[in-house]
DNA sequence: TCGGTTTACTAAATCGGTTTACCAAAAATA
DNA sequence: TATTTTTGGTAAACCGATTTAGTAAACCGA
């Protein structure tokens, strides 16, 4: 039993495709289709359970009601939760989501981006590792509806939904200093992303403000291709250097470090404090104690969707830059 | 600068659409297009950066290379991780993912399902709360490529990728009984899903096998519409009843309970043992100690994709039922 | 009862590809 | 040289919708 098309319906009822299409699109009255015919078509539609082919619609209309969601890893709770919220918000507006995970790889990002474009997405919501890239740049120039979140390239004009980085990081670290911390280390994945750089700046600023020495050796970079091994090595370095506080620039690295601490140094989990940019539910009851900077997931999602919808609708160039305030959670 | 279509390319080069299409699809030799013309077209394609419109392709070919991924909540780590793995596996086969979260609501599930179908997905990977539903049933009857995972309706023939439920649950609980537990409670979300019922059966069986009394009052059901409040109430009941072990039927409820225990009964976290169907990374270092039944995420994803690809390719009816073995993690 | 308007509806073009069927010229064969 | 085959292409139909431009018939006022 093949699916019925408008053509089939028209034939079955002895009317034209045009008439059926008008009725389906609620243009029956406007287009002077008699009530009788309208009813006949609507009844038949219901009876056979006709569903329009969105692909055909998309081809004709030039719009797919599809948004691409491009992030480093959809299984990272931060991106998963934002994705989920965006899914719900977009659904209300009649859009739905295609997803892509880039693994922070430039090549994968460009391939996914091209896939999205070939599939004629109406817009993109992106946490990109490579905003400067050819494809994105050209899209930007041609005014393709896009919203960037989580990451920014200050050299590129675009719509950004961001979260303040430097100051919150500084303030979170200040809390530990207020409690007497003197030796503070930092663990970050490769900071080729501007927002990570800012978080690290916050770290340096906190030290500076308090007259603490900035020791370059205590700023450790983890290779994001082999997080576990690399983090273990760098964490070990910091522990052996005798730090009282370890600062992390995102949730993934904090989670890894918590796990490592419990596996390798269970005796030390009570002496050390973690500071994490990004919050995770588990921080509420894991050790070491974590002071975290919680990004406002709902706001990020809401703003992204709002700006995107606006840009799609207005078809005008827009370069909004929204900086949201994160929430400091001291435990 | 509008995007070029095949028609534009053909006009620019003074050849026909047909010729361009043949060359683009590597049918140049087969269709006797001269090397010279082929090169000319390919060079021009590269120069102007032509990208085919997948929507048009889909309309003509009747296949979209798109798979729908329908789960209760894409931000649940279990579904997020499986989704991520599936994304990667499908990508290799030239497919990509559209996602939908049902929130365990029948109505939402049907709406999303219809959306997927209107968008002409080539197949579906589903953790459904409502397999018996009209839409799914009719799809099944018309032999639409689908794979169900995580959940089963034994009354419906289909492709299932499942994990053993009863025995592993029984064995996990046995570990706690071996260590002397006598009073064992259970917390589950509303078990309107067959696999949850089986997990609960495993719980009952464990008690039975060991001559322990099955006290209906210790089997508490949490309302999945307001998990936190409901779980708090039910957990309180169990704690006050003096249980030594609490069993959970999925990760979400375990995670909530861990959080609640640490918030409300920090003094008891060391005395109580949790048993969780589904594993989470945090169990490695959270309290109370968790004995967990880890579902083989990678295998689930791999099998789902494999079976789906097979069904799509062969266009034959198939009713595979694969039951994977979970891994018991004792901490 | 004639011209204009409204009513009720339809043919055909279009979106951007793929594919079938066909054709002229050149090359190969009889 | 006449005929067949191969080479190198093209026109047009098609996928399933939307939309423009139009057309008969009914109606309506003068």
Automatic annotation (TrEMBL), chains A, B:
Gene3D superfamilies: 3.40.50.2300, lambda repressor-like DNA-binding domains. It holds the Pfam family LacI. It comes from the Bacteria. The keyword Ribonucleoprotein does not apply. One of its GO terms (molecular function) is DNA-binding transcription factor activity. Residues 4-61 form the HTH lacI-type domain. This is HTH lacI-type domain-containing protein.
